[in-house]
Amino acid sequence: MNSFAAAxxxxxxxxxxxxxxxxxxxxxxxxxxxxxxxxxxxxxLDRYPLFAVAIVxxxxxxxxxxxxxxxxxxxxxxxxxxVGAATLLALSLYPTFGGLILRGAFGSGSMAFLNQQPMGxxxxxxxxxxxxxxxxxxxxxxxxxxxRRVSLRRFARRTLPAALAAxxxxxxxxxxxxxxxxxxLGPWPRRALTAGxxxxxxxxxxVAFLPHALLVAWRTGAEEVRPAGVVT
Length: 232
Prior knowledge:
Layout: H1 3-23, H2 43-47, H3 51-67, H4 74-93, H5 99-114, H6 119-146, H7 152-177, H8 195-225
């Protein structure tokens, strides 16, 4: 899998998720398996519906990393994928939709606002914490599959700046996805997505995750030219 495929697969999976939900008329009245039904309701799903798409993006990113060229063997790739997926799903869905990620983001933003911080600053703080938790969960799996021994100098010059850039890209993504209803997205999943809703959701997802996808493409391409270090 080349660098563009590794970057494009997660974004394509996220858009395919929106398309499938639209064509299938998925909403809270849809018949779901008993194990999934509780996740179709709740405050965080109503308020931040596109976080469901973010979960798909994160899982697809892990799959792309697991299938990318590299020296890691199958056992290490499988273990990294399992660890990353389990951590991401646990932080995203336990005890209900949103998990610790959205609860932490909403709680920190709310406390900042209650402490008389401007709404914009409170929203930025909440988005930052959500992005940090999401990126940590996703990054654990990717690091487990791709990490190599590096010198302290290389860590400071390459790995740390790359991790910071990934965090900033995800921070931007979370800030954009949180504006879904303000951008005109209807009350999904209380009712099915309309064609207009799907276009709004797809546009927001592309804007949100394109910086991260481009960052992954650039870093993966750099690793193909000179393999060393860590890609997260």
